[in-house]
Specification:
By secondary structure, the chain is mainly α. It has one helix spanning about 1-49. The relative contact order is 0.07.
């Protein structure tokens, strides 16, 4: 039973690591995209202010 719990926890840790990496990749990709489109976005924001 203990071995099963250890295997399960290591599997969960692996899944968390994979999800974390995917999220970080997605986040950095969206950051680059928002930086690229920020120039026009900032102009609109300044107009609203």
């Amino acid at each position: 039973m203990e071995l099963l719990a250890m295997a399960y926890s290591s599997l969960v840790a692996k899944m968390e690591e994979i999800i974390y990496r995917l999220v970080m990749l997605e986040f950095s990709a969206t950051q680059k995209y928002s930086l690229a489109s920020n120039s026009t976005y900032n102009v609109e924001e300044a107009g609203d202010l």
